[in-house]
Amino acid sequence: MCGIVGYIGPDEAAPILLDGLSKLEYRGYDSAGLAIYNDGRINIEKAVGKLANLSEKTGGGSQVKGSLGIGHTRWATHGKPNEVNAHPHSTENFSIVHNGIIENEAMLRRTYLNDVNFVSDTDTEVVVRLLEKFTSEGEAIDVAIMHLIDIIDGSYALAIIDRRNPEYMYAVKNKSPLLIGKGEGFNMIGSDAMAMIAHTDTFYEIHDQEFAIVTRNSVDIFTSYSKKVDREPYKAELDLSDISKGTYPHYMLKEIEEQPLVLRRIIGEYQNDAGELTVPEEILADVRACDKIYIIACGTSYHAGIIGKHFFENISGKPADSYIASEFVYNTPLLTERPLFIFISQSGETADSRAVLVKIKEMGHKAITLTNVKGSTLSREADHTMLLYAGPEIAVASTKAYTAQVAVLAILAVAVKNKIGIDLKYELALIANTIESLCSDRELYKRLAEEYIAPSRNCFYIGRGVDYYVCLEAALKLKEVSYVQTEGFAAGELKHGTISLIEEGTPVVAIITQYNTHLNTRGNIKEVTARGAKVIRISTKGASSRRDQIVIGDVHELLTPLVSVVPAQYLAYYTAFLRGCDIDKPRNLAKSVTVE
Ligand code: M6R
Questions:
Q1: Distance 526 CA to ligand 1 centre (A)
Q2: Does ligand 1 have an atom closer than 6 angstroms to the CB of 58?
Q3: pLDDT tens across 65-100, in order?
Q4: What is the DSSP letter of 201?
Q5: What is the number of other CB atoms lying within 10 angstroms of the CB of residue 340?
Q6: Any atom of ligand 1 within 6 Å of the Cβ of 295
Q7: Which residues pair with 550 in a beta bridge?
Q8: Going by fewer Cβ within 10 Å, which terminus of the chain is more open, N or C?
Q9: Which of 156, 591, 127 is nearest to 393 (CA)?
Q10: Distance from residue 410's CA to the centre of ligand 1 (Å)
Q11: Ligand 1 centre distance from Cα of residue 424 (Å)
Q12: b/e per residue, 235-262, with b = 16+ CB within 10 A?
């Protein structure tokens, strides 16, 4: 995970790097650091904890002079989050920042660095020590970088500066995201476009096993065989307002309330000139040709995948299943004869999902990626991409990306075969309006969170069918931001074990939107109520009963996950708020999980 920014140009680097890092804090926030070149020296500043600590320590960067520098926010993998392990890591001449994991670090230490006394516990220190060693043995820096690419196994995005060559900055990439920002008289390196968008909207991609030599006025990209790459820069469709909180206290709340806008944007992006929702024919041909769809994802995206399975089977009549990527890669099920893979990933960088993509590509299978990030690794490496158009999602807890994923899956399922004759464009527009009216009930959600969930140690979500699938996502949302231990259960399973967890006052949230099961779920509510549970009921109008606290306007029954998840997102948000949690950056988590 971790975030990287680099700057070379005429201005003071440190404030620019701190500002860039503030856009990357979602990638990790255990510690942060800067390396700034000035007058023959590289000055290092580090601080444990959030970026604000580093900013305070350096007077917002004003106390570290110099116009060449690199910066880092860390999500610890090797070694505790302390100042010694914080990046940058340095030797006599080099400072580097790293995102990723060096898998063969033990072998590298043994083979090349036996006599070195390491100061940190990080795998990154191995890289900077190797660079120092190779250059001190006479290799030119570009040769030393190619040497590194040759011997390092694992994932790395690296930004490097060299005390002896302050007119250059170096970037190296393998399996971890890295872009070059192209400016006028300056250039930047960053983990994503958001870190640089205040300065430029023009970017170069660097692909795996490539490196770049960056000066104020030039960007040269090379393969690991030193062949110069001829690549055009591209313009990012981002603007600063997309990544600011505006008047919202938290990104999570802003992103929950952007969901109607996101759905309308998706309708606009996926409709053709005749106003019909469409998907490129080459994608449809691949889906139609398969005998089963394998959906691969992690976390929230996996939960969207389960809804996708429901869509493909019920709307298109195509067998489908959703799999947790980290399980699938090492415990691959027996595949059908003509499988087709769909990867769902907000970031497009999730290492667990990518491991599956690499594996199934080696097996010769086709893949589609649904992602929010154009040009991301999963997008580049799949045969096709369907974008989510959710806009940047900054809060670690995914909200609008989930609804975007579900909506795009519905569009794909309907385009493959609309067995049930659903008017999806109309339905999605209706859903956008319905979510808008849900957003006007903030006080209700806050009151329910306060009365039922915030004081409790644990909580349960129950539902059947798609409601159960939404319960899984609702439970993840609540536990990750509020630290209230929450599980989502199939309501019918309660009596087979789980009901023993219900005590006097245990909060249970029931989701009831399906006509064929609403009476059964209500029966389960009676069972938990009889054992002391305090129940919040979220229902759609047609399946509602008089005492339900949250009643959602009716939408197509297959698409209720798009609306029933919204009150659950609010309950998670307000519970975290009332418990004083760091809502946008929950402990131990990072937004983009680029390690397996
Ligand atoms: O970027 P991805 O969608 O691949 O990320 C997968 C999960 O890490 C992610 O969905 C995670 O579960 C959410 N941030 C939780 O809200």
A1: 34
A2: no
A3: 999 999 999 887 778 889 999 999 999 999 999 998
A4: S
A5: 24
A6: no
A7: 538
A8: C
A9: 591
A10: 20
A11: 26
A12: ebebeeeebeeeeeebbbbbbbbbbbeb
Phi-psi region of 588 (alpha: psi -120 to 50; beta: other; left: phi over 0): left
* Phi, psi of 100, deg, nearest 5: 135, -165
Around 300, how many Cα atoms within 13 Å sit in the side-chain half-sphere?
27
Q: Is the CB of 350 under 6 A from ligand 1?
A: yes
d(CA 594, CA 596): 7
Residue ID of nearest Cα to ligand 1 atom 15: 397
Q: How far is CA 480 from the centre of its chain?
A: 14
Contacts of 399 (CB under 8 A, 6+ apart): 252, 255, 256, 259, 393, 477, 569
Shortest-distance Cα residue to atom 16 of ligand 1: 397
Q: Whose CA is nearest to atom 4 of ligand 1?
A: 345
Q: Please state, in angstroms and rounded to a whole number, the distance separating the CA atoms of residues 4 and 579.
A: 32
Is ligand 1 within 6 A of the CB of residue 353? yes
Q: What is the pTM of this model?
A: 0.78
Query: What is the C-alpha separation between 564 and 557, in angstroms, rounded?
Result: 11
Name the amino acid, one letter, at 416.
V
List the residue whose alpha carbon is closest to atom 8 of ligand 1: 299
Q: Is 581 noted as a catalytic residue in this protein?
A: no
Give residue-wise pLDDT tens across range 450-474. Answer: 999 999 999 999 999 999 999 999 9
Between the CA of 347 and the centroid of ligand 1 the distance, in Å, is: 8
